[in-house]
Write a structure and sequence with these properties.
It is a single chain. This protein has 548 residues and is an alpha/beta fold. The protein has three domains: 10-17 and 38-317, TIM Barrel, CATH 3.20.20.80; 329-471, Alpha-Beta Complex (Spore Coat Polysaccharide Biosynthesis Protein SpsA, Chain A), CATH 3.90.550; 485-523, no CATH class. The protein contains 16 helices and 22 strands. The protein has an eight-stranded parallel beta barrel, surrounded by six helices. It has a seven-stranded mixed β-sheet with strand order 16-15-14-17-20-19-21, sandwiched between helices. A three-stranded antiparallel β-sheet has the order 1-2-3, with no helix packed on it. Helix 4 (120-141) packs parallel to helix 6 and helix 8 runs parallel beside helix 9 (306-315).
Length: 548
């Protein structure tokens, strides 16, 4: 394929003599909208692995020699994460630790498939069984530092969700999460969601995992912006991103070019990581091999496709590679009686790795040690300006007048930015004049109010949400209390039947069966406002993606 790096043949990779890097790596945690490992950002670059046919010991994975060859090849391709859909066996966990791979472990609860038609009493037994499954998997993985997170499920069928009900499904996922945390309090827990059932984002997962299959990168960019809004202060991980490889002569080149645009869109949208679906065409469902199924970066014989070279290229890239000429940025921090937080705010801001970053502190007539603490960072490039107390607006104008650069980024004194914050600002200003967004909370930090990040250049233009700074946590409305229906501004308790019918273009009042059947269909504007109708998924030649 022209212009794309070639992937090494897997037979040559397996033949190399490689020294295992078995150093039990530090646990990955959540810091704002990103993952953190050992105090440094951890950008998840993953690939899904399985499911396979059962081997001699019953595990749904290849035999140990072939499994080890696969993990070596995955490591050589630059991936740092593998996603499984069933609990990983011990030999996979050991091999992953040898080759510095994190395991995004999954579990498969068959009970969701049998939920349709069950009574409430039967569902309570199903929920208890799934909680026992989740606790058992968490107990077995508790001492393995190589486990990145545990996914308690993947893609509950939409018809099952309609039967069970949104509230009951969220309550079940919450109970499973609590069961995992009871066994392992520090384990990151998530659920593999997809756009059709995005109402399940109300579950209190540690980070949002969304499987997205969108052919158009512009649609993907728009949906990722929406997903950041829905996820709040949680990181967003693309749990599956991929496409079926056709049978035409240029199908592999088309697949590779498509993957390149998708990974580029995911990087620009500030996702915390991606998982490419999948490593190989060797795929089994229900104990049977799926024929004619070509989603893999390699074929059944582990021969690499062109898309593997594309994925390897993006495994070595981040947002810093997308900014060709980084513009100068002036960070203005307005502070009034911020002695409790200004020191740590400046310690992080002045340590940002950016070519031309200016830090200006405007002390707005503080009565505490704000100016004294800020002056300690003068040797690290911070400039301090003291003014009488005239309010935030006046302080920001003073900071803008002191700025040397055209781009001025305002940061609250009780917040601190992530490592890549100025790079995302520089990337956003390629298309926008004003960039702003809320600061997501970091639960391990200060207990104060939320902040707001605003950057501006020239005249006021379009606004784009970009929340990359981490403030202190603040009380927020539990996700379960958020309204899913955004077609009305009224709270759900005040939505009358007549209001819903007027909104949907139906006759007001109680409708008879005959009237309901003869009523016109909902308007297209109403349908576009409903999040649950979105299902832009690329399906394989069998017409329907099989459940894992």
């Amino acid at each position: 394929m022209h212009g794309q790096p070639c992937a090494p043949h897997l037979s040559t990779i397996a033949a190399r003599t490689l020294a295992p890097s078995r150093a039990r790596s530090t646990t990955v945690s959540v810091g704002g909208k990103w993952f953190v490992r050992g105090g440094q950002p951890f950008l998840a670059r993953g690939v899904s692995y399985g499911t396979f046919g059962a081997r001699l010991d019953g595990a749904l994975y290849p035999e140990p020699p072939e499994l080890k060859r696969d993990l070596i090849a995955i490591h050589e391709a630059g991936f740092n994460l593998i996603r499984t859909y069933t609990p990983p066996p011990e030999d996979l966990l050991d091999a992953a630790a040898d080759w510095d791979l994190r395991v995004f472990a999954g579990m498969h609860a068959l009970d969701w498939r049998y939920a349709r038609g069950c009574s409430r009493r039967q569902w309570r037994r199903i929920e208890q069984d799934m909680c026992r499954q989740a606790a058992g998997v968490a107990r077995r993985l508790r001492d393995h530092d190589t486990v990145f997170a545990l996914a308690i499920g993947n893609e509950i069928p939409a018809d099952t969700l309609r039967w069970v009900g949104e509230a009951r499904a969220v309550a079940t996922l919450t109970a499973m999460i609590d069961a995992v945390h009871a066994e392992d309090p520090d384990r990151l827990v998530t659920y593999g969601n997809y756009p059709t059932t995005e109402v399940l984002l109300a579950a209190p997962v540690d980070f949002v995992t969304m499987n997205i299959y969108l052919d158009d990168s512009r649609q993907l960019t728009r949906y990722l912006a929406r997903l950041h809004d829905l996820s709040g202060d949680r990181p967003v991980l693309l749990g599956e991103i991929g496409a079926h490889v056709g049978s035409t002569p240029d199908a592999e080149d088309i697949h590779a070019a498509w993957l390149d645009t998708q990974l580029d869109a995911a990087c620009r949208a500030a996702t915390a990581g991606t998982v490419v679906f999948t490593w190989t065409d060797d795929w089994h469902v229900g104990g049977r091999a799926v024929e004619g199924w070509r989603f893999g970066l390699t074929d059944r014989e582990r021969r690499p496709r062109a898309a593997l070279g594309v994925a390897s290229k993006w495994n070595d890239r981040d947002v810093r590679d997308l900014v060709v000429e980084p513009p100068g940025i002036s960070v203005v921090i307005c502070a009034h009686d911020a002695g409790a937080t200004i020191d740590e705010c400046l310690a992080v801001t002045c340590a940002l790795d950016y070519p031309d970053l200016e830090v200006i502190v405007v002390d707005d007539g503080s009565h505490d040690r704000t100016a004294e603490l800020a002056a300690r960072h003068a040797t690290r490039g911070a400039r301090i300006t003291t003014t009488p107390h005239r309010g935030l607006g006046a302080a920001r104008r003073v900071g803008a007048a002191e700025a040397r650069h055209d781009i001025v980024a305002y940061l609250d004194a009780d917040a601190y930015p992530s490592d890549w914050w100025p790079w995302f600002l520089a990337l956003a200003f390629a298309d926008h004049d004003v960039v702003g967004g809320p600061n997501p909370a970091d639960a391990s930090e200060w207990k104060s109010r939320s902040g707001f990040v605003l950057a501006t250049i020239g005249s006021v233009g379009s606004v784009r949400g970009l929340g990359h700074a981490r403030p202190s946590p603040r009380p927020r409305t539990p996700p379960a209390q958020r309204s899913v229906d955004r077609a009305s501004t009224h709270p759900p308790s005040r939505r009358t039947r007549a209001h819903r019918h007027r909104r949907d273009g139906l006759p007001a009042g109680r409708m008879t069966t005959a009237a309901r059947r003869s009523a016109p269909p909902p308007s297209s504007a109403f349908l576009r406002s409903r999040p649950f109708i979105l299902d832009a998924r690329t399906r394989g030649p069998r017409g329907q993606r099989q459940p894992r």
